[in-house]
Amino acid sequence: MHSTDIAHAPTPEPATGDRRRWFALAIVMTAAFMDLVDVTIVNIAVPSIQRDEGATFSQIQWITAGYALAFAAGLVTGGRLGDIHGRKRVFLVGIGGFTVASALCGLAVNPEMLVASRILQGAMAALMVPQVLSIVHATFPAHERGKVFGLFGAIVGLGAVSGPLLGALLTEGNLFGLEWRPIFLINLPVGVAALFLGSRFITESKAPRALKLDLPGVALVTLALLMLLYPLTRGRELGWPVWGYVSMAGALVVFAVLVAYERAKGARDGSPLIELSLFRVKSFAAGIAVQTVFGVGLGVFFLVWTLYMQIGLGWSALRAGLTGVPFSVAVSVAAGMSVQQLVPRFGRKVLQAGALVMAAGVLIYLAEADHYGLGITSWQMALPLVVMGAGMGLIVAPLTDAVLSEVPREHAGSASGLINTVQQMGHALGLGLVSVVFFGVIDERLAPAEVGPAFVDGFTHALGWVTAVLGAIFLLMFALPKRPAQHVEGAAGAAGAEEAPVTGEKEPELVP
What we know:
Layout lengths: L5 E3 L11 H34 L3 H29 L1 H20 L4 H18 L3 H8 L2 H32 L8 H4 L1 H15 L13 H24 L3 H28 L12 H31 L4 H7 L1 H22 L1 H25 L5 H27 L7 H26 L10 H29 L14 H5 L12 E3 L2
Antiparallel strand pairs: 1-2
Helix pairs in contact: 1-2, 1-5, 1-6, 1-8, 1-11, 2-3, 2-4, 2-9, 2-16, 3-4, 3-8, 6-12, 6-13, 9-10, 9-16, 11-15, 11-16, 11-17, 12-15, 13-14, 13-15, 14-15, 14-17
């Protein structure tokens, strides 16, 4: 779920008598749900797309990574556009564009068009998502927001479970002979309804002192990521050419230019894309590293897991979707327990325990996949998936509070936006690394009888990498505060696994 925990001090308190605010809430929650489901629904349909469209494995990676990259690159800009031009207006542009992009995805005539449409979809989500809780804050008085954030928490759990299942049902159902296309086309009636109702029921709001856009900053971030991800994704396919290594090395240079530019822009007008002073706060710098590395691990696991079940084991999309239900349920249950009961008592140890528990689940999965080979069943996967889900739930819900707990109040908005941005970037990087940690150990030309065993080997190899990532996360967590201060309220409960920015004033007020 992408959401925000930052609101704006000068905004007048909304009135309680306007019933239209509940219609507005339903509309923005529907949009948030669309975005969340769209991320998870595609993974389960990837093998079907690959088979029906003849997509290469690098194109398959870009169908998922392109969305994550465009979403990450546009998040902060999307939040600021809402502050400057009106959150309702930008939200409607975002949801309209998201609906058009969904139609283009569903009507794609080749893999290249699908990749381009997914990138557009991610860019439109970056306009839509940051406005969601900004609109809630502008629409609901303080005493009602706790109830609203609780509903958002429920949406997180519902989206986590329903995304893969919905994707499996739509793919297996082959509605009107459209095969995988309904996973995108289902957004059309929902998007059109949200656009029409949103224009009627959402109240417009703006930030009174919005910061300026930092488009050069966005361009530098996007360029650096493309220079890193493109060679990673295509390198194996092209035989690891020299230009790929040059491009990846050049990405580090572009990142250095970005830092220098942001420092100069901050000194010049106080509105950089990235507030570099935040990285002097040890817990924040470590937390950003945790978010990035965690995103890499999740990006690797979820794509490889889907390919392993459906191509390697030859399972249907529906069986693969149902197999993931124990994982989703475990994440939701553990997330609720970690925030409400465990973190207040044990602090940072809960997050570290989550990394170790999740690593233990991955190792159990690795052992079972290696032992049972192609004969493994969904029931045998249930134990490692429940253990992994419990570990992930212990991490995702309280992590944002832990990262933000020592950040100066005046920079809370920038910090919150940066957390989600780097997680999405990490996710895109993980998807790019799949070509190395999974496809790198699989021969390009396999006889039909060799596909299953090769994919099992690739899966166990990738799980070894995911275990190493979780070990790194455990060590990085020692730099987080032992007991996070609770001055950033409601973030974990409302936001779930991810945060997105509301940017604008230099002194945001936190939602009670």
